[in-house]
């Protein structure tokens, strides 16, 4: 799997990518404790699609040596 460091991106692109990753991360956490986890599947899929549109498929994202996506 290819890896990209978020620090290598422009500030605007890095912000948008961090935002999508954070939204996906929060949705996954909420889904884990939800009474209706299937309601989050479409939203999570949309976040993943937005991330993949920015960086491509099968790409991990790191920040400061720590993997933040997937």
| Contiguous uncertain segments of 5+ residues | none
The overall average pLDDT, rounded, is 97
The shape, in one word, is elongated
Helix count equals 2
Structure classification: alpha+beta
What is the β-strand count? 3
What is the beta-strand fraction?
A: 15-25%
Largest sheet: 3 strands, mixed
Strand order of the largest sheet: 1-2-3
Instruction: Specify Rg, calculated over alpha carbons.
Output: 13 Å
Terminal residue distance: 11 Å
The SSE string, one letter per element, is EHHEE
Q: How much helicity do the residues have?
A: 40-55%
Could you please describe the fold and organization of this structure?
The chain is of the alpha+beta class and 70 residues long. The protein is 54% helix and 19% strand. It is built from 2 helices and 3 strands, in the order βααββ. A hairpin with a 2-residue loop joins strand 2 (59-63) and strand 3 (66-69). Helix 1 runs antiparallel to helix 2 (41-55). The termini are close together.
